[in-house]
Every structure is written in structure tokens, then in C-alpha cells.
Design brief:
Elements (H helix, E strand, L loop, with lengths): L3 H15 L4 E6 L10 H8 L3 E8 L2 E7 L3 E7 L4 E7 L8 E7 L3 E7 L5 E5 L3 H4 L13 H9 L5 H6 L9 H10 L13 H20 L35 E5 L2 E5 L12 H5 L2
Helix pairs in contact: 1-7, 4-7, 6-7
The structure holds zinc ion (ZN).
Length: 280
């Protein structure tokens, strides 16, 4: 499933090819991909709209459109979605759900085998992305902000880092990587973390995402992210050796998500006792 770095790579890819161009023909071949807008309305509303800018918010690809009225189009790729740009003469592929032909002879194809992805049209961005939390590479994401987000809440660290309403864009791959780097067990209760954990955690989130963006994300060979060169240290490496200590990487399940960790580097921690916290 594409996360922040993969979505960022998609935005860059699209920006070079479609920014500044106008949609001259639109067809939705799977109506649910554009819910809640009815497919005929979607086609009508994007027709003759100019794609002014491309941007990313969390795991959404954003497009600012200027047609009869200004609109935003947000695409969430979910499990298997991808946005490709091909010549308009290319035959529509089996899993292409939405095709947007442009005035430069190119066509944006929203391809989605498993059909969980969505293209949502809205007038105000907040209608779609209003509930998202902080951008982890944005100026507002400081160690202090991270501390306020997680030390003030009860829960386990991994589900909390995956919560898009707190931090937008982190997913299963990069959360496992970040926790391995900071030697934090994914099930650690946030009450088991101390303020001294925060700065390294903040640093690891930003470093990991920046490195992955530079490498165009992670390619698992499933055709979802082509050409990504990020090599995970723990994610997807169950049974292989931890590059730091030589122990064997384990796969477990945390909050229904496959989770990878090194049992030596990432020891379980308990909640710190109330009295200890009081005397801190
Ligand atoms: Zn290890």
C-alpha cells in the first residue's frame, strides 16, 4: 500500500506530465471509484478543467482544477491504485477505473485492481482532507508537537503512529522502520515512553521519510510502486537477519497489521509507574 514517499513520487511523476494541461475527455468505468459523486456528474464537472497544481496531503494525491468553478480532486490509492500517464491512443486497460484525456495527447489512467482506491471531487479541500493530522515533513511537525500528540494520549505506539488523524502519511512500512531505528517495541504503551524518546523518534520519522522519498519509495515487485529503491531494514524481512544485532526479524500482528521487529533491538517495555512519572 502506497504511503507518503510513494504518493510523493506519484505527485512528482504527474506534475511533470500533466500540470497546466486541460482535461478534454473524462470517462469513469467503475462508478464506485468516484463516490460519493455520481459518475456522470464527475465526468461533467472535470471536463474542460485545467489542472493547475499537483500536491500531496497525507497519502492523497491532490489536484487543483480550474474549470467552470474551482475544484479539487483527491486520489487515495489505497491497496492497489496507481496513476499512470499514457498516450490517449493507448487502449483502456482492464483495471483502469477512470480515464482523463488531456489537451497534450496524454491520458491520466487511474488503475486499481482491487477497487479500494478513490478519486474524490470537492470544492473545499477540507471536505476530504480536513480530518488529517500533521504533515510529518511540514514545519508544524516539531519534537514538541510530537510529544504533545503522543504523550498526552493512551494507547500503543504503533497504532498511534498509523493514526492519520494525528500524523498524516505514515503507514505500515515506514512505522515499522522508524520503530526499529529507535529501538521501540511496536506494542509499547505511550505511557512507557519518556520525553527522551521523543527527539530520536521525531528524527527517525523525518529521516526515514526523506530517505524513502529520495529513493522513490519501496518496490515490492507487485506493480504498485515501480522503481522504488528504498530497502527496508525490517519491514517484509521476517526470518532474515537484523543488520544491527544479527538476531532474526520476527513478524507479528499489532492492531490487525502485519508488524516486523527485531526481538533483541526492540525489547518490550511496560508503562512507567504513575509515581515515577510524578517525580520526573
Ligand atoms: Zn536487532
Amino acid at each position: 500500500m502506497p504511503e507518503l514517499p510513494e504518493v510523493e513520487a506519484t505527485v512528482e511523476y504527474l506534475r511533470e506530465r500533466v500540470e497546466g494541461h486541460t482535461i478534454v475527455s473524462a470517462s469513469v468505468t467503475w462508478a464506485r471509484s468516484v463516490l460519493p459523486t455520481p459518475a456522470p456528474d464527475f465526468e461533467k464537472q472535470v471536463l474542460n478543467a485545467k489542472i493547475e497544481t499537483l500536491f500531496r496531503r497525507g497519502k492523497y494525491v491532490g489536484m487543483k482544477l480550474n474549470g467552470i468553478t474551482p475544484l479539487y480532486l483527491f486520489t487515495h490509492l489505497r491497496m492497489s491504485g496507481s496513476l499512470d500517464v499514457v498516450p490517449t491512443t493507448f487502449e483502456v486497460a482492464k483495471h483502469d477505473r477512470v480515464c482523463l484525456d488531456l489537451d497534450n495527447g496524454k491520458s491520466i489512467r487511474f488503475n486499481d485492481t482491487r477497487k479500494f482506491g478513490r478519486m474524490r471531487l470537492c470544492v473545499e479541500p477540507d471536505e476530504v482532507v480536513g480530518n488529517l493530522g500533521l504533515e510529518p515533513l511540514g514545519p508544524e511537525f516539531t519534537p514538541e508537537a510530537l510529544e504533545a500528540l503522543i504523550l498526552g494520549k493512551r494507547g500503543r505506539i504503533k497504532p498511534m503512529l498509523l493514526d492519520q488523524g494525528l500524523i498524516a502519511g505514515l503507514g505500515n512500512i515506514y512505522v515499522d522502520e522508524v520503530l526499529w531505528k529507535t529501538r521501540i517495541h511496536p506494542l509499547t504503551p505511550t505511557t512507557g515512553l519518556s520525553p527522551s524518546d521523543i527527539e530520536p523518534l521525531h528524527g527517525a520519522i523525518q529521516e526515514t521519510l526523506r530517505e524513502a522519498i529520495e529513493k522513490l519509495g519501496t518496490d515490492f515487485g507487485d506493480g504498485v510502486v515501480d522503481g522504488g529503491m528504498y530497502r527496508p531494514k525490517v519491514y517484509g524481512r521476517a526470518g532474515k537477519t537484523c543488520s544491527r544485532c544479527g538476531d532474526t526479524i520476527l513478524r507479528t500482528v499489532v492492531g490487525q497489521r502485519g508488524t516486523h521487529l527485531c526481538p533483541t533491538c526492540q525489547k518490550k517495555r511496560r508503562a512507567r509507574s504513575a509515581s515515577k512519572r510524578k517525580h520526573k
